[in-house]
Amino acid sequence: MRNVTKDNITDVFMGYMGEDTNPRLREVMQSLVTHLHAFAKEVNLTHAEWQMGVEFLERSGAMCDAERHEFVLLSDVLGLSSLVDMINFKPGGTSSSVLGPFHISGAPPLPIGGDLRGDLDAPVLLAQGIVKDTDGQPIAGATVDIWQTAPNGLYSSQDPEQGTYSFHGIQTTGADGRYAFTSVKPVEYEVPTDGPIGEFFEACGRHAWRPSHLHFIVKADGFRPLVTEVFPDDDAYLDQDTVFGVREDLVMSYWHMPAGTFPDGFALSGSVDGPYLQVDFDLTLVEA
Hints:
Layout: H1 9-15, H2 23-42, H3 47-62, H4 70-77, H5 80-88, E1 114-115, E2 124-132, E3 143-147, E4 168-172, E5 178-184, E6 189-190, H6 196-204, E7 209-210, E8 214-219, E9 226-232, E10 251-252, E11 255-257, E12 276-280, E13 283-284
Parallel strand pairs: 1-5, 2-12, 2-13, 9-10
Antiparallel strand pairs: 2-5, 3-4, 3-8, 6-7, 8-9, 11-12
Helix pairs in contact: 1-2
């Protein structure tokens, strides 16, 4: 095409795609390029602004490795990750929420009633619930991948003082569908601001804080995988999560339990003398 103009360049782009292009890829690319070209024309994008955007993406890519996922973080803070979650949500199950950039694959098995707190001098949190289907029946053999921040607000991949799988574990439910573990109360934290995303926050006048939360990835044969997180109802950042991850059904309450009431069946049973926190939160999966 010799006579490419700002009015026909989108159509020309589509005309360059081969006849054997995957139909779904064609649909996605046509919409993407149509909106991208329309955006550039709508804001009268300058060369300097285009160059700034390209450099921002290049620097984001340069920060990505096995432990730092700056592009995932960019998707999160733009609300794209949460939007994709909501588009693909199937009614009847627990809402999905952002995976975030700090999940580590291959966490070790954690027995039902196992402990993530270790030797830390921090209040005990007892978390438990049932993995169930939309009819309320427990699901046996479901895997529950659990991870959270340490009390210093850092995930293990951010903190050289922590072990690789600190505050990470995977439980497998029995016939009762139950997961249960002890840990420490997660804390609110700022997402990393030492890279391009930090510059984005500063330019937009935004804070980088997330409310405290527990992460879960739940999988079971015959069911759609669930990636989610749960948030306490008293967190200061509950209504201003910088990655838009909070959903109404993911808000839970910590129960302040008195001394002498810690139950049996946990790794810490018999060793918790004082008060502790407890949260009960069921996770509902939708059939595939």
